[in-house]
Every structure is written in structure tokens, then in C-alpha cells.
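Obj.: predict assembly geometry.
Materials: sequence records (below).
Method: joint structure prediction, all chains together.
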Amino acid sequence: MAAAAAARSSMGLTLRFSRVIPDCRSCPLYRLKGCVDNTAGSQRRGSFDSLRTINRHLQTSICLSQAEEGSSNAEDPDDVVNVVYIDRSGKRIPVKAKVGDNILYLAHKHGIDLEGACEASLACSTCHVYVNSAHLDKLPEPEEREDDMLDMAPMLQENSRLGCQIILTPDLDGIELTLPKVTRNFYVDGHVPKPH
Amino acid sequence: MRSCRRLLSELKLWTSGRSKWTRGLNEGLGGSGKAFLSTSSCPKVCIVGSGPAGFYTAQHLIKARQDVEVDIYERLPVPFGLVRFGVAPDHPEVKNVINTFTQTAKHSRCSFYGNVNVGKDVTVDELQGAYHAVVLSYGAEGNRRMGVPGEDLPGVYSAKDFVGWYNGLPSCRELKPDLSCETAVILGQGNVALDVARILLSPLDILKKTDITQPALEALAESRVQKVLIVGRRGPMQVACTIKELREMVNLPGTRPEMVTADFEGVSEALKDVPRPRKRLTELLLKTALDAPGDKELERRRNAAKVWGFRFYRSPTEILADPGRSRTAGIRLAVNRLEGSGDAARAVLTGEVEDVSCGLVISSIGYKSLPIDPAVPFDSHRAVMPNSVGRVHQAPGLYCSGWLKTGPTGVIATTMNNSFDTARSLLEDMDSGALDVSPAKPGSQEVSSLLEKRGVRPVTFSDWEKIDSLETRRGDACGKPREKLLSVEEMLKVARA
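Observations (raw C-alpha cells):
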């Protein structure tokens, strides 16, 4: 089960084996071409494509691709920005990113559960994250439109920002982004409607 | 499933060692208990309604378990519900979520069946027979009525129908609203009310580049509406709209705001301890209503021919007709005062009334869910399905998400969280055994054969893509993102081509 455990930790999923989307690249069978799906030319994005050849990967929060062009395998060490995502179960997921990366799409690239419904156009609040205090003030002030959308996010806090508006710079090295726990309330701001 | 079984056997080989592999193969795949999926019966879930609630529920289920198969049924030939028919034409970024939904629909474990009317073409009971679980997420297609005399006069429309009309909802095609009057009164102060106001007053130059329907564009080009009042029964601190939409009204070219100063008495003092979203919204409202504008803004307002404004503490009591009783000529509003404060504040009648001349009344006081099938529990008082975190009461195997579950308020993000909650409940029930997914269920095979016997031909997702492609091409020809097909007949014709 070693590879499965490795897959689990790299994917940041804490589910049982049956639900893990294994990272085929770490599997000895795959590497030795012993896996039925490792046929030449089947090197596609999203490792779980290898499980079912007719599967298409979801590009949103479950995209596992690390093989995209210009990805986090930074060549220039000065370009590397270390980022930690803390998912909804509290698990820390360290990610090596580079200068210029967008926090929302970086999360997608690493299979982190951050929705981006409006695709970074400041028309929703689904990429809401909390920024750790050490780095919060290093971010540029939110523009009015971001504040307007943040107003709609559930569990808004002083350190809330929209992930799609955070672009990595060298001084953000070590930034930690916590995903808000989704509430079971009706309303976006935790408000329960009072009949009137 | 064969490749699946083969791959699992390969994985077992690798993880358990050779001798265990032989044993495992002999025992069959169930050997490790629940950890390995049973290839003969994947859990099958049916979702009714293909708006954000349906798609987000599907997305969460498919992502969480590698064995769940989800079928989405939709009454119209086209998917996406209010994202297509509710979101305003000048809010195209909000519609980007369609890309996420499209990926879900095209997932190998998801299938879309349009043109299927659940409750009529197939019953919920029959769906429950074919699937392990059924999730109802068909939203709120009904309308809260004002319940006042004159409500059915020509010139009075529900916001739901008006929005459906400019967004191409087939059932609202024949609305033909009369826009020949100078003043329009909108009842309600939520985002839908602001959308309606904005569409009524937007310059044509802006509208003609959106996916607003051609008939609506033509009607708005002939519109004589110059003044829109957005009326609420409580005060400025109770408006249900959000700041983005308010800012859009404030910045709408060719228009100027006009409000009643007295309505804002005591508001700025009350802002001290209010949460940030309400505070920012109210501050913008106060600034717009009370502050003297700078020179540039003053000039802009002087040149603006169209006027809009909120009116507070007013409830409709009667729609007034012209002498021939043939159309709307005005609205009688009762004057209220507030008891209490904040969200719990209540409007109480003072006894005074005020008449406002207008030729167009649009009531934007809320959508309402309707029961789909008499056999399914429904709370007709609150107009929602009785449920606990998405599990429908007294109906094992039945779940609900979206507005049907919580009532018709909230934006797409709200519905997303709501749908994820329902999906989580369903997954918990599968895990715990509360929902028994071990017996094989026929799923869409059985439903498809039922539908065929009844002469119903579902529209697949690739059929929808033909419609999508045609609409986009037609839009290209006139500088719009799409030119929507306006009738079910047209949609089906293209889908079947």
C-alpha cells in the first residue's frame, strides 16, 4: 500500500484506498509498463485518466495534472515560491509554486478543493481563502470589486481574500492559505432568515 | 467494467504480494470488503433538475466516489436552469460556471437527459425504483403573489416572468410586456428587482452586445420607460440586494438616482455595530441618496434622462386601473413604520396610503417552489421540501438540494454550498449503510425504456451541444455571445438534426 499512501499524501486526500485517485506515476507497475493502461501515447493529463481510458479529468478542483507546461517544476530557484494550502479537514498541503502563479489555478493544479465558479472574473466568492497573518499585509489592497464579492462569502474574516486575486511574488514565500469550512447554513453570510 | 476489474486485479497483485493475489482472485473481488468497488452494481444516483443545484450535487458525488454514476434529468431540452434563464444578460462572467457544469456533464460517469418531465413523463416513484438515490433539485418555478386587487391587470408582471421573457425562457415567450408608459414600479428590493430595473434603463448600446433575446431588445428599443421606482415595505437597512448590483445602478450610464431623504433618518447612526457586508452596502446607499455629488458626477446626473430610486416603508394594497379598467394606471401603497431593527424588523401599517401613477408594475417578491409529484413530501406553507441537511423527511432514498431545499434565495455560491451539503449527506448514507447500494439497480436503462414506451425522446448532452453551437454561431453574426432559440420546438428540431 506504499504507493497508495504516497498517492494519498501527494493528492492531499484522506480517503480510503477505494476512493483515492492514484498517482500512476509513482506506481512500480506503471513505470515497468506492467500496468494495463500504461500504453504508449496514453500519457494524458490527470493521472486517473490511466484508470479508465474513457474518463475525462475535471479541470476544476480535482485536476491532478502536474505535467502541464510551465508548471510548478520551476527551473529557476529564485522563481520558486513555497505555498501551503490548509484544506477543509485541516490537512497541510505544501506546494512549490513560482512567481506569477495564481492561487486559484495553483490549487486546481494540485487537486485542492477550491472552486472558481466565475473563472477569476470577480463575479463570485467561491475561491474565498484565509491568508495567514504574516503574509496578509504583504498582499496589495483588494480592489473595490473584490471587497464587494468578499462581502458575499460565508464566514468572512479580517484575513479573507479571494484566491483568484492573489498572484505570487517572491515576498509571498511561505504564504499559507486556509480553505474556509463550508457551513450548513442557508445563507451566504451565516445569517438565518427571520420571517417578517 | 472489464478494464476496471482487470486493473483492480493488477493493483491487488502489486499491493498484496503474489500468494495473496491468488487467494484474492479466488475469493473474488469482494475479498477486501468495502474497499474495492463491486463491478456489478455501481451506486446509481438520479438528479432531477440541471441548474446549479443539480450540477454541483453531481460534481461532488462524482468526485467523492469513483464508483458513483449520476444521471441528470431536465424538463427543458437545454441545461443549466437559472444560469441560462435567470442571470442577467449583462452579467456574462457569472455564467462562466457553465464551463464547470459542462465538464461534469461530459464526465464518463455522468449523463444528461433533457426534454424529460419528471412527474409527467416518469414518476419520482419509478425513478426511485431504477436508482439507489434520487436528488430533487428542480428549483422554484412558481411565484409569490402580492395578493392584492388588480394584480391580474394588463401591465402587471412577476419579475420571474419578466426575467424569463428577456432571457428566452420558452414559457415566457408570449409575455409582450407593455413598455409604453413613463413610470415603472418594482415591488421588492432584492437582486432580481435591481436586475429588472437595470435592464429597463440600460442604454441599448450595452444591451445589444449581450445574450438578451432579440424580441426583448426590440421591445426595449421602443420602451418609453424613463423612471423606475424600486419599492420595499421596510427601510434602507433591510434591502435584500447586494453591493455589486447597487453599484451597477449607481454607475448606470444615462441615469441618475433620486430618493427621499427622510427615508434615511437614523440610518447612519445605526451602522456602528453592523457586520461588514451590510455596513458597506448601507454606506453606499447613504452616499448615493444623501451626499452632494462632485462636479463630474453632478454634470453626469444633469445630462441623465432616466431616473431610478428606492422607495421605502411602502406595501402594495391595490393596483389601480384606468377608467376603462383595461390596463394599469397606478398603484396604491400603504405607508409603514418599522418595529424592531436589523433583519428581524417588521413593517407595521400606519393607516396612511399613497398613490403612484405608473403603467408598469413588476412584483419581485420571491420565487416559489411547486410540488412535482403528489407522492413526494412537500411543505406547501413554506413551499419547500421538508428535509434535514438534504435528506427528505419520511422518504428514504430521496434527497433535495438548491432552492427546493432551502427556499428561493441566494446566489450561485450559496447553492453550491447547499448542494455539496446534500451530496455529503448522501455519501454518508452510502457509507453507513443507511442507503443500501449493494443490490444492482438498472438506472437509466430502465428509465429510457419507460420513456420510449411513452413516446418521450430525451435530449443528450451532445444534442444540447448542437443547440449551443447554433446559438453561438447566430450570436457571432450579430455581435452577441449567443442568439438563443426561443421555443422548445425549435430546440428539439436542432437537437434531432
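Conclusions so far: Chain B touches chain A through 61 residues (CB under 8 Å).
To do: check interface contacts against the pulldown list.
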